[in-house]
Amino acid sequence: MRLDRLLAMTMILINRKRVRAQELAEMFDVSVRTIYRDIDTITQAGIPVVTYQGANGGIGLIEGYRLDKHVLTKAELAAITMALKSVSTSYQDDHASAVLEKIQGISKQQDQVKESIFIDFSPWGQQPHLQTKVTMLKKAVESCTHCTFHYFNRLGQASQRTVEPHLVILKGRSWYLYSYCLQKKQFRLFKLARMHDLQIVETTFQRKQIKIEDLPWDKEWYNQSKTIAFTLAFHHKVRTIVEEYFHVENITVDEKGRLIIETEMPEDEWLYGFILSFRDDVEVLHPQSLRKKIKKLAGNVAAIY
């Protein structure tokens, strides 16, 4: 992550009188050009970085500069520490660990702030293989290296994929890879849990321009041509779960005391499974096409038993 690298570089410059750009590039496994771009960013943030020429040259801070206590307050240091600790629950990042160690060193010089929140991204029961996938894909994204894997879609259909990885995403409760698929010739969102035999290959690619702030994977998922408007009626005993999914402000109560939800989602296997997961505590009021689909699936389940 670039933020981790910028923080680590700042701490190195504060703790060391002078360091060469090539050394920083090797330390963070990036190009020298990237290091100089990062230095420009640090300078724009108000930290006086100076480049020294000659045999003993390198990058350093203006003589006598120290990190002012107002640059990072103890609350801000606590917030950064919390974020880095939370990230560390998902994948192994040596740079993040180095930054965390340095920030904790600074925090010891100030009054300690009691930690009041901790975000644990790891799944229940621990899944080291998932953490390994996230770590591998993060490195592939940073190095613009192709990945190959066997992928199983929602219907259980298998395919071999070669992709250009662009982002590793934690969405809801699951990890995904947003990448350009060479087979489909377009960007696709792949769920890490459905990847098998993940391999990082030696060939590299030119990263494509994407606007992360636009959440392009959300737009792809919520394509109106794939969505359906429907109404569900839930038994009041599952209110807590319904509120978790749909939020209180979207819930109305009918004359029978049922919780009514009117919403719109893509109609796919996930939606069918979601509705069926509530067993007899939910009823599809409309449209009729969705009622018939759920009735048929429920009948198929009943036929097995």
Explain what this protein looks like in three dimensions.
By secondary structure, this protein is of the alpha+beta class. It has 3 domains: 2-107, Arc Repressor Mutant, subunit A (Orthogonal Bundle); 128-211, SH3 type barrels (Roll); 224-304, 2-Layer Sandwich (Alpha-Beta Plaits), CATH 3.30.70. The chain is built from 10 helices and 11 strands. Strands 6-5-4-3-7 form a 5-stranded antiparallel beta sheet. The longest helix is centred in the last third of the chain and has 17 residues, at 288-304.
Strand content: 25-35%
H and E string: HHHEEHHHEEEEEHEHEEHEH
**Low-pLDDT sequence parts:** none
The count of β-strands is 11
What is the averaged pLDDT score? 81
Assign the structural class, choosing from mainly alpha, mainly beta, alpha/beta, alpha+beta, or little secondary structure: alpha+beta
What is the gyration radius calculated from CA atoms? 25 Å
CATH C-level label of the largest domain:
Mainly Alpha
Proportion of helical residues: 25-40%
| Large-scale geometry | elongated
Number of helices: 10
Q: Give the termini separation.
A: 51 Å
CATH architecture of the largest domain: Orthogonal Bundle
CATH fold title of the largest domain: Arc Repressor Mutant, subunit A
Strand order of the largest sheet: 6-5-4-3-7
Largest sheet: 5 strands, antiparallel
- Write down the domain tally: 3
Set out the fold topology.
Elements: H1 2-15, H2 21-28, H3 32-44, E1 49-52, E2 58-61, H4 74-87, H5 94-107, H6 128-143, E3 145-152, E4 158-171, E5 174-181, E6 186-191, E7 195-204, H7 216-221, E8 227-234, H8 239-246, E9 252-253, E10 259-266, H9 269-276, E11 282-286, H10 288-304
Antiparallel strand pairs: 1-2, 3-4, 3-7, 4-5, 5-6, 8-10, 8-11, 9-10
Helix pairs in contact: 1-3, 1-5, 2-3, 4-5
